Amino acid sequence: MPATPVRLDLSSPVRGPRGKPPRHFVDLTPDERVAAVTALGEKPFRAKQLATHYFTHLTADAAAMTDLPAATRDTLVADLFPQLLTRARTQTADGGTTVKTLWHLFDHAKVESVLMRYANRTTLCISSQAGCGLACAFCATGQMGLTRNLSTAEIVEQVREAARALQAGEVPGGPTRLSNVVFMGMGEPLANYKAIMATVRTLVAPAPEGLGLSARNVTVSTVGMVPAMRKLADEGIPVTLALSLHAPDDELRSELVPVNTRWDVDEALDAAYHYFEVTGRRVSIEYALIRDVNDHAWRADLLGEKLNARGRGWVHCNPIPLNPVPNSRWTASDPRVEQEFVARLRAHGIPTTIRDTRGSDIDGACGQLAAEEDE
């Protein structure tokens, strides 16, 4: 099917509820935190105490902050830790080790996060926007349109809530730590670049100024916003970059991922390879396998050829069985076709791993819970 030309306004036109979230402790620099507590009549060292409670003890509950004066702790928390997320709905799968949460934001915008506990790691998939403005054809979030960008604190709060639940033993398997964060939930992360980078810096900063995660365990995904990919390479933070490609040829990719009409397949792959050259970090290529659409053996061969044309050892491919969206014409590939696609990539020497599709029985595709609420 020929691609339909799409004009993209990458300034992200917004529909639906809008608003600026209230000021939160996470949105402030360390110096600004000191200024904020002193403006409330407290000693400067209270800022570090608050940071320790939030980033180490994972709490924003005034009652738990017993090392702060009882007379002022409620004021400090009310002023610096406004409630940004309200749990609206939770679904679980895999014996409770996969937890999908729909959050309502302060202005009734909706986002989702998914916590997945494995034998050797725990991974949280987080959202960076409420909705998405890039309109990928098979994506539940893409069909919602964009409501707004999330603030740094709104993104970090998704992480703190998950880390707190794991620390408290609320996920089967006993208390544990959050080890991995992936920006693969609702939204295009690199379209909210400033907040994403502030979030990444907060995630990897050592306690008590951040959550102390390894940068190598943080993954930032993109559908191919080339200038932002190149900018990310120069940040000096070795996160993993994941490029959601979904087709190796421009004709099909422009239909599936309209941003391809702005930056085509080769430009996106060149930017991904540049990221590898600058950081030394292997790039992940994400590829949702869609039955009779992009799962042809010749497309696997073309993808392998394009990746190898840029070098060896710089990339890892993750074919993903599509999580179907209700009333969509898109569905997952036949398992035999999937196996042939993987075999073709491996024959080209491309390390290839089928992505685990956890939560497919609980509206696994990001955006489905939010979409259901709007029906």
From TrEMBL:
**This protein's GO CC annotations:** cytoplasm
Q: Where is this region: Disordered?
A: 1-22
Tell me the ranges covered by the Radical SAM core domain, including all copies.
Answer: 118-361
**UniProt-listed Enzyme Commission number(s):** 2.1.1.192
The listed locations are:
Cytoplasm
Superkingdom is: Bacteria
What other note does the entry give for this protein? Reaction proceeds by a ping-pong mechanism involving intermediate methylation of a conserved cysteine residue.
Classification via NCBIfam families? rRNA_mod_RlmN
Q: Which HAMAP family match?
A: RNA_methyltr_RlmN
| Name by which UniProt lists this protein | Probable dual-specificity RNA methyltransferase RlmN
Q: Which source organism does the UniProt entry give?
A: Cellulomonas gilvus (strain ATCC 13127 / NRRL B-14078) (Cellvibrio gilvus)
Name of the gene encoding the protein in the UniProt record: rlmN
